[in-house]
Fold this protein.
Amino acid sequence: MALQSLRGTADLLPDELTRWSALEQTARRLAGLYGYRELRTPLIEDAALFLRSVGETTDIVQKEMFRFQDRGGQEIALRPEGTAPVVRAYLQHHLDKIQGVAKLFYAGPMFRAERPQAGRFRQFHQYGAEAIGSASPWMDVEIITLCLDVLRACGVTRTTLWLMSMGCRKDQERSAAQLRERLAPLRAKLCRECQARFDKNVFRTLDCKNPRCHELAWGAMPNGQSPFVLCEECRAHVDTVRLGLRGAGIAFDDTRTFARGLDYYTRTVFEVRAEGLGAQDAVAAGGRYDHLVEEFGGPSVGAVGFAAGVERVLMAQQAAGTALPAPGRGGVYLAVTRAPLVAEGFHFVDALRKAGVPAAMDLDGKSFKAQLREADKSGYRFLAILGEDEVTQRAMTVKDLEQGSQDLVSFDTFVATMAGRLKAAA
Ligand SMILES: [Zn+2]
Ligand SMILES: [Zn+2]
């Protein structure tokens, strides 16, 4: 049997990659408008980075992270998410000393050993933005606005924004104690893992993949009340976020209770859900992580960010029927009537490319008819024909494959004319 790609991984063939690149470019461009600059971190990191940030008791670290020992015995992880590496890089390169707020954008593959299912991959892709160095609730508003702007620009408009506050660390301690107390009588009904992490991290019951734990944990609170009890400052923070979102004309739902399966979040957390994705309907999510920089040995500064799943956004785009249209015809295909004319043709194709015009010709001795079929099939806008008559007249026969028109273009002005026509058609 021929070799196959691994389950939960996907090849991106050129047609599909066109949509991917368009999405990433849109995200990068909009992030740039907001002053976020791109960085790239390695795909592999010291596993301890994620143990200390995402959390030892989380599903991501316990079950999903790809870990291995290198030959020297060091524990390596394939990055399961983007925030911890960005914060590590921010500190390693002293960005905290160079600028006030570091606004960073990233895009690339992440890895989790989840059971492959629709919309879930072992190698999946995210783009995201992090604003490190500010505790301001207005920064939360900016991050959410950027997150939604990218989705809107990609045609994913039917979305719901879920907004919640998980409180500061002190609030989380109080909230955990309260949740433990309420759940204690039900402890035996929780899954084995939730029982094991009950004392260390009771919040994991809130996002346990076992629906029973999930129901028990959320149901333990009276009247669907949030399990997160907020202090006065945290209440004021989330109030300002609401105010800012209203000012930006962004609708949100703050009646939902949800948990993000990572330990580093404090205060604002949010999810963006898109219609048409079924159970996997979160396309983007994020929140504030005000202690991570300090926990990594840096200064005590706030930070907030989001990450969006490229596969999910593209699925939402298709569900919404707003997938970017296939690119129109472009470029020039040069066909020769006789093989010896390839040398002459090659010279023109080379000149077109150097002028920035996509150009191609057959180098494989195809028949003239086969060349014409190829020009049409490959989506070229113009067909330039080079034959004996053309050489005599020192002019190329040029056919517009979209309009059906045809004319003669002098060799001397051929490159400039083609460049001009394609520019006019764009
Ligand atoms: Zn608080
Ligand atoms: Zn559980």
Notes: The chain has 16 helices and 15 strands.
